[in-house]
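To illustrate the input format used throughout this study, we show a single complete record. The first block contains the structure-token representation of the backbone; no residue identities are included at this stage. The design step must infer an amino acid for every position from geometry alone.
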């Protein structure tokens, strides 16, 4: 069985950017043996949220390569040049391409590495290969769409699997219901419903705002309730000084803070990334609601300070039990029961899938602490390097799950792979377990 220098799990933007960084570093030299395993049958990035008129929230300059290597042929600018649209894009006078166009850019970049990606394979387990008392390699087991099990050996592993849909506990019993679905499968699910009469959208972030507006235009007579726990839809703060939190050099500042300072910083900037739509879409929603009042209609409602206490599938509809958090416990209208044809969850994502994938390595990785270069801390007798992409927000800052630092991060991971030829890594001395995870400098738990 071939031993790969690097096996990547997932082939979304983070690992596509890593493939680019590896190719550019090894240009003219001996390339590392790499393979990426992706469970989707082809490249796809938030395919079910490619809504009409939806645009990126970050500058196109924060693409897969520019901030690491502006002369790379994989920049968004060169993509436009090769597609023959560079001058027309300039005439748009925007930093924010449509989501459709940026998805096409990402797919274009990924297409250059199809010989290094096995699509349609889902990784089910990563297990250690022990030789002479040391973990020398990692065995990665995957399952194809036909059910065939495959195995590969690797000297290093990078996990870039993105997030998994966050389903609030109250909706957990309704998993699989065609009437309740997460934004991550919005387009494929909404196409199954011809003319719902009443829809609830849960959440107050960018996805929820986009879902509200898409449903408003898709079903001209449908009533939509936007349900949130907050007092208002709050806009993202994209002012220049706040935006510095997403700069690559800010990662150093965050990472080297003591735990309590880092936690306070993340809380302070939380609304720069979460539950904070663009101001333009907030103003559009407000205008829609205002025009309703002008016409004396009550088609849509913004239910602020409301929490979903219960959800029940009635067969032909979903009943939500709501609590008005601003009403006193004795108020007659504190709780209400509403029925909806559809409930759409704009409730974000969780970042815990890497823990499940690395569960078999628990004796060596423990609570999973990472160093500054995103490498999981392991004892000396564990020789493979394990790197995490997009799972280090608590240690590296809010930018970790975004495209903002992707290009720079992959350059740092590539450099961390470089000190010695990966095929000839000397064995670590037996009996030397290295620093404990508890005492590794700045190794924050994630």
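Output of the design step:
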């Amino acid at each position: 069985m071939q031993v790969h220098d690097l096996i990547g799990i997932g082939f979304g933007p983070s690992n596509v950017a890593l493939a680019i960084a590896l190719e550019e570093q090894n240009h003219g030299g001996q390339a590392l043996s790499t393979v990426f395993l992706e469970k989707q049958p082809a490249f796809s990035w938030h395919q079910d949220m490619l809504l009409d008129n939806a645009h990126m929230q970050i500058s196109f300059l924060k693409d897969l390569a520019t901030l690491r290597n502006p002369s790379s042929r994989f920049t968004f600018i060169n993509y436009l040049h090769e597609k023959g649209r560079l001058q027309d894009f300039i005439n748009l006078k925007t930093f924010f391409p449509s989501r459709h166009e940026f998805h096409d850019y990402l797919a274009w970049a990924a297409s250059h590495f199809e010989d290094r990606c096995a699509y349609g394979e889902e990784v089910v387990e990563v297990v250690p290969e022990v030789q002479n008392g040391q973990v020398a390699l990692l065995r990665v087991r995957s399952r194809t769409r036909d059910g065939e099990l495959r195995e590969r050996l690797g000297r290093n592993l990078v996990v870039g699997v993105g997030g998994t849909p966050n389903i609030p506990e109250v909706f957990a019993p309704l998993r699989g219901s065609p009437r309740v679905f997460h934004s991550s499968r919005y387009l494929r699910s909404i196409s199954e419903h011809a003319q719902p009469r009443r829809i609830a959208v849960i959440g107050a972030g960018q996805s929820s705002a986009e879902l509200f507006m898409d449903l408003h235009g898709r079903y001209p007579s449908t009533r939509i309730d936007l349900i949130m726990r907050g007092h208002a839809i709050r806009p993202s703060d994209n002012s220049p000084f706040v935006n510095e939190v997403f700069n690559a050099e800010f990662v150093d500042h965050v990472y080297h803070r003591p735990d309590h300072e880092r936690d306070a910083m993340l809380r302070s900037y939380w609304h720069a990334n979460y539950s904070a739509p663009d101001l333009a879409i907030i103003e559009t929603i407000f205008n829609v609601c205002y025009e309703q009042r002008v016409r004396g209609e009550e088609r849509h409602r913004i239910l602020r300070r409301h929490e979903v206490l219960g959800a029940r599938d009635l067969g032909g509809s979903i009943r939500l039990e709501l609590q008005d958090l601003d009403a006193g416990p004795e108020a007659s209208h504190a709780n209400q029961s509403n029925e909806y044809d559809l409930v759409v969850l704009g409730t974000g994502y969780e970042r815990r899938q890497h823990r499940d994938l690395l569960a078999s390595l628990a004796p060596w990785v423990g609570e999973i602490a990472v160093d500054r270069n995103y490498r999981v801390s392991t004892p000396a007798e564990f020789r493979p390097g394990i790197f995490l992409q997009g799972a280090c927000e608590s240690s590296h800052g809010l930018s970790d799950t975004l495209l903002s630092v992707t290009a720079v991060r992959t350059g740092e991971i590539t450099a961390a792979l470089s000190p010695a030829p990966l095929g000839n890594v000397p064995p670590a001395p037996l009996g030397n377990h290295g620093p404990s995870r508890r005492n590794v400098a700045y190794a924050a738990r994630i």
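Structural context for interpreting the output: The longest strand covers residues 121-131. The chain has two domains: 3-163+351-445, 165-236+274-345.
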